[in-house]
């Protein structure tokens, strides 16, 4: 809990603040130059707050359930109304991302060679990578005002320091980027990307990612110092310690359970790599997950099915299983090259299905597909953060993923949310036939 002096003054500010709360919904046809989209016309937003006065301390205590977003005055960001005075309290909820953090060596080649043959390297780039890092970098490009934090375990080496410095440059809180005291290296990946197709193949040294465990997560800091309300964890099945099963529970499940106890909404991604315990790790972890965002390969690994040649209907049916039998709490989103499917039971309603085609991009637009899945996740997470309807989240996700494809690095192509969403005005969404195979619609 946080204690504030001058409680009467602060209580007065809070009273004025709550009277001016407005929603943060960004319309699908939003333009930053559209004068009709003002904070004064926003709808009211429900805010759950517990305020307790402590007479002995003469202070105001805000409990862990404090979920109020910040309102910023005089800003061009459409998500924040400009009707509040500078004297009113400003606290904005944030997003924390944790898990696999790596250095990516992205190597562009002319083709993927058969075993024992040669392919030519055109050029290579060193970048940060891994789900948490990529998602945070994408979110920062999309919205410069978002409070962002990262949790991970790095080596005491140049690569580890490079990642810390890069996060700081992007105004990402690094309080919980821990460093090992031994010689274990920061995880790194050689990403072999074929120039003509953007297809990637990964060679990973797990390094310190394999050592990340529950003791590295300080949820008191995450919630009460950084005011985060969304917690993203990836990639499960390549995080050795978090994937460990103890007393019929994964360590990741334990972490996610604790996150939920602190009031965080949990989001999880897996990795497209075989693991003999893949399905069991999922079964023991998913009950603590609010939103699952994976691709069709990972969906197949969880269910022990080959789904790369599946139809949209078959993908929908498989995704439903993850809610009905694996007990994902709110949404399961499956993305693939031609689009995405989301199965939702938000607000304890019956299961609903949503389908979204990807953008039809012109030849030459795609420079690389590294990080495209993470960009999709970033777009969907942004929609969750803004409390957009499911269809708007999916639309945002495919637009951000498309923007990512314009650059060979995992996050260099992503621009502001306005620029990302403008892509749907330039290019058409792919029409998805629910009875056709997802591999046949590209």
UniProtKB/TrEMBL annotation:
InterPro entries: PfkB_dom, Ribokinase-like
Alphabetical GO biological process terms: phosphate-containing compound metabolic process
Keywords: Kinase, Transferase
SUPFAM superfamilies: Ribokinase-like
Any single Gene Ontology cellular-component annotation: cytosol
GO molecular function, one term: kinase activity
Domain Carbohydrate kinase PfkB: 94-407
Keyword Cell inner membrane recorded: no
Pfam families: PfkB
Keyword Transferase recorded: yes
Record protein name field: Carbohydrate kinase PfkB domain-containing protein
Organism annotation: Rotaria sordida
